[in-house]
Structure to design on (342 residues):
């Protein structure tokens, strides 16, 4: 339930909050579900990116998703290992 | 009897990761398809959220303002500062027009439009306005802030909304002039309304001069706040503060003529 709320808040923040807040929420929700970062990046660029500009939000989202996939894998390994 | 498995196990290709990969592929395809084939649909879906966000921003602090006189004074001060900025911008525009003796009413004939999303909520220095192509917000149409200050152009539009790219978009080049002598200058967008420019070190530009963009006459967009000169370089860097703060724009005027 909390995870769904966090992901929902992240999505709404794209429309209502400055990017810094969205980034923090994206990081928190990506800890639970890594694709959230890429989805938020794509949503941001679909809404605001001017033609010809570099899709920074998507690139950051993709990097964040990859990072959190590895982070989750590492955390699971550590938990099993201990 | 205990069975031993010799199957190689790849930690990165587990069942869960395949599901995540499939989900990623789906959302990428969905957003790319929406952006290419139905850009208006996304804006239409997002409009209620943008409106709710703008309303919430305006409403924050109002209940608290009735409780404390300090908060009331702060809000009043904010309102007066915004009014003063708009009047200052209008005065600069009128002064420029008077100096150029050009068509004084050319900008006033634009269409007013509410701002749904503005920096810092929208990155890339873009505005989303509640005026669509049907109402005159066609691609290439110039957009002015209250007071007649040029701020950007309509980049794309759907039936009920349009995306405006500000002149201050990072890296965007715009030709303009500086000061009463109208020294030509190439402005480079620095985001958040600010500009910079590289000029010859011996340039006659001084701090405090007004920076203009071409329009109906010369229209002021900012003031030179600093000139960075390096004795070892033949060039100087000029920093320009905008006349209008894009973070506080609540409505704009769209010129119904496209220059594309």
């Amino acid at each position: 339930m909390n995870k769904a709320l966090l992901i929902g808040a992240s999505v709404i923040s794209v429309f209502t909050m400055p990017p810094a807040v969205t980034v923090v929420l994206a990081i928190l929700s990506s800890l639970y579900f890594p694709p959230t970062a890429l989805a938020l990046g794509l949503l941001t660029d679909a809404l605001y990116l001017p033609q010809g500009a570099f899709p920074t939000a998507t690139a950051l989202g993709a990097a964040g998703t990859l990072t959190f996939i590895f982070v989750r894998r590492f955390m699971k390994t550590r938990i099993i290992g201990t | 009897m205990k069975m031993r498995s010799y199957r190689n196990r790849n930690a990165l290709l587990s069942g869960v990761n395949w599901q995540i990969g499939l989900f990623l592929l789906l959302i990428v395809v969905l957003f790319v398809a929406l952006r290419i084939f139905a850009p208006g649909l996304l804006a239409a879906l997002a409009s209620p959220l943008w409106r709710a966000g703008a309303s919430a921003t305006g409403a924050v602090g109002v209940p608290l303002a009735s409780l404390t006189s300090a908060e009331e004074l702060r809000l009043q001060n904010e309102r007066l500062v915004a009014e003063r900025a708009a009047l200052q911008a209008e005065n600069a525009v009128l002064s420029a027009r008077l100096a150029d003796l050009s068509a004084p009413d050319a900008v006033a004939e634009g269409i007013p439009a509410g701002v749904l999303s503005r920096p810092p909520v929208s990155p890339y220095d873009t505005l989303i306005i509640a005026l669509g192509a049907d109402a005159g917000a066609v691609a290439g149409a110039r957009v002015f802030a209250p007071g007649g200050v040029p701020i950007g152009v309509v980049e794309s539009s759907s039936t009920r909304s349009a995306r405006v790219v500000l002149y201050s978009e990072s890296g965007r080049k715009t030709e303009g002039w500086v000061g009463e002598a109208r020294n030509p200058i190439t402005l480079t967008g620095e985001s958040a309304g600010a500009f910079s420019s590289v000029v010859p070190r011996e340039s006659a530009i001084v701090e405090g001069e007004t920076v203009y963009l071409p329009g109906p006459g010369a229209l002021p967009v900012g003031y030179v706040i600093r000139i960075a000169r390096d004795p070892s370089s033949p060039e100087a860097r000029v920093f320009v503060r905008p006349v209008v703060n894009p973070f506080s724009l609540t409505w704009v005027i769209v010129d119904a003529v496209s220059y594309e």
